[in-house]
């Protein structure tokens, strides 16, 4: 009797319920209810294993024999065919992750690093707007430099900064996918950069009002509204908009404003808050703002939360100005450089910058609070037309 290929297609179709050997461990199992399936019995690593090869007749006799041959070949190589099939299935499922899936997972893993856990959505926005509409449904393992080039080409020159951010985020997503075990091309973003070429666009700095013009603008902010008071405090302190927008009465004690480190850009990883010395003018602005306070926040929005990032900018736009609130930091820094003899460390700390390397900062524990208080007082005097001669700070 033949040890293999005992069954024929015609016989397999006519058999009743029972177990029928085709040889070499391949069996056709037919049930009373009419169902049937192929089963392969093998011995691997000293264990007897039964491996399903599919239902009959969806899987024909010829197909079952081919799958059985593949499994027997694995057994000869001392590989468990059931485990090998499970691994292949897991790999196939894993490699079906789309770029949209990976981007969402990468964002979740990085939320703790982002301001306010990334609630503003800025980390994902370059991808959501310019990449995912085209590549979001593509399995991440299939994305190559051609896909990336074709996606970013429309904005590569006209929206250069945004395009670079999108390319950077794509690179992070691919690294995240690689960490998950996906077979991605980590070099695809750099290859795409080479294909896209050098950008024509030059980054333009945020327009800053010349420091000599700032007093006139400051003194025009007289209506006592949230917007006017927020702009006044921003100009007086030289801070970015986030600490101003989220200013809370609990952060202020006397003439010192203590800002949580997560609200001060450039101080990532800091374990200490940032102290801001307040001039008499700044204290007066804060006291005036308290009448608007809601839930302790000095600058609430009309509906809920605090004023938006664009509120102060829109005020300047309505006045027909090209300048923007962020530019007042440069105005303040230029005024320091041109009218005082302030040491660089004090000047940089005054605008919330961290100066020096890690070793230098480890030994330099001071935040120059007294020197900065004198500097901010002098700046307030300039803004309110009380400025005197050039003064040395430090």
Automatic annotation (TrEMBL):
<comment type="similarity">
    <text>Belongs to the 'phage' integrase family.</text>
</comment>
<dbReference type="InterPro" id="IPR002104">
    <property type="entry name" value="Integrase_catalytic"/>
</dbReference>
<dbReference type="InterPro" id="IPR053876">
    <property type="entry name" value="Phage_int_M"/>
</dbReference>
<dbReference type="InterPro" id="IPR011010">
    <property type="entry name" value="DNA_brk_join_enz"/>
</dbReference>
<dbReference type="InterPro" id="IPR025166">
    <property type="entry name" value="Integrase_DNA_bind_dom"/>
</dbReference>
<dbReference type="InterPro" id="IPR013762">
    <property type="entry name" value="Integrase-like_cat_sf"/>
</dbReference>
<keyword id="KW-0238">DNA-binding</keyword>
<dbReference type="InterPro" id="IPR050808">
    <property type="entry name" value="Phage_Integrase"/>
</dbReference>
<dbReference type="GO" id="GO:0015074">
    <property type="term" value="P:DNA integration"/>
</dbReference>
<keyword id="KW-0233">DNA recombination</keyword>
<protein>
    <submittedName>
        <fullName>Integrase</fullName>
    </submittedName>
</protein>
<dbReference type="InterPro" id="IPR010998">
    <property type="entry name" value="Integrase_recombinase_N"/>
</dbReference>
<keyword id="KW-0229">DNA integration</keyword>
<dbReference type="Pfam" id="PF22022">
    <property type="entry name" value="Phage_int_M"/>
</dbReference>
<dbReference type="Pfam" id="PF13356">
    <property type="entry name" value="Arm-DNA-bind_3"/>
</dbReference>
<dbReference type="GO" id="GO:0003677">
    <property type="term" value="F:DNA binding"/>
</dbReference>
<feature type="domain" description="Tyr recombinase">
    <location>
        <begin position="204"/>
        <end position="376"/>
    </location>
</feature>
<dbReference type="InterPro" id="IPR038488">
    <property type="entry name" value="Integrase_DNA-bd_sf"/>
</dbReference>
<dbReference type="Pfam" id="PF00589">
    <property type="entry name" value="Phage_integrase"/>
</dbReference>
<dbReference type="GO" id="GO:0006310">
    <property type="term" value="P:DNA recombination"/>
</dbReference>
């Amino acid at each position: 009797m033949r040890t293999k290929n005992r069954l024929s297609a015609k016989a397999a179709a006519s058999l009743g319920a029972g177990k029928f050997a085709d040889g070499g461990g391949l069996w056709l199992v037919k049930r009373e209810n009419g169902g049937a399936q192929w089963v392969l019995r093998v011995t691997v690593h000293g264990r007897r294993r039964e491996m399903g090869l599919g239902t009959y007749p969806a899987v024909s006799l010829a197909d079952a024999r081919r799958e059985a041959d593949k499994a027997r070949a694995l057994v000869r190589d001392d590989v468990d065919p059931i485990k090998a099939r499970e691994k292949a299935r897991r790999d196939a499922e894993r490699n079906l992750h789309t770029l949209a899936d990976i981007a969402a997972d990468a964002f979740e893993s990085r939320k703790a690093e982002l301001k306010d856990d990334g609630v503003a959505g800025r980390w994902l926005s370059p991808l959501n707007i310019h990449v995912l509409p085209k590549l979001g449904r593509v399995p991440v393992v299939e994305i190559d430099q051609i896909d990336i080039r074709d996606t970013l080409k429309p904005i590569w020159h006209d929206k250069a900064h945004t395009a670079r951010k999108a390319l950077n985020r794509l690179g992070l997503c691919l690294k995240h996918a690689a960490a998950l075990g996906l077979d991605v091309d980590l070099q695809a973003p750099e290859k795409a950069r080479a294909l896209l070429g050098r950008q024509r666009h030059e980054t333009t700095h945020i327009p800053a009002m010349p420091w000599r013009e700032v007093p006139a603008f400051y003194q025009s902010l007289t209506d006592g509204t949230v917007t006017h008071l927020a702009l006044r405090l921003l100009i007086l302190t030289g801070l970015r908009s986030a600490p101003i927008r989220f200013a809370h009465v609990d952060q202020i004690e006397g003439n010192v404003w203590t800002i949580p480190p997560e609200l001060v850009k450039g101080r990532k990883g800091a374990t200490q808050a940032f102290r801001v010395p307040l001039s008499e003018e700044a204290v007066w602005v804060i006291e005036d703002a308290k009448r608007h306070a809601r839930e302790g926040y000095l600058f609430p929005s009309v509906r809920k939360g605090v004023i938006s990032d664009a509120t102060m900018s829109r005020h300047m736009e309505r006045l027909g100005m090209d300048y923007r609130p962020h530019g007042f930091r440069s105005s303040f820094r230029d005024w320091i450089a041109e009218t005082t003899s302030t040491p660089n460390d004090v000047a940089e700390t005054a605008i919330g910058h961290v100066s020096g390397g890690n070793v230098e900062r480890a030994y330099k524990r001071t935040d120059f609070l007294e020197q900065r208080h004198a500097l901010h007082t002098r700046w307030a005097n300039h803004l309110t037309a009380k400025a005197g001669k050039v003064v040395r700070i430090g």
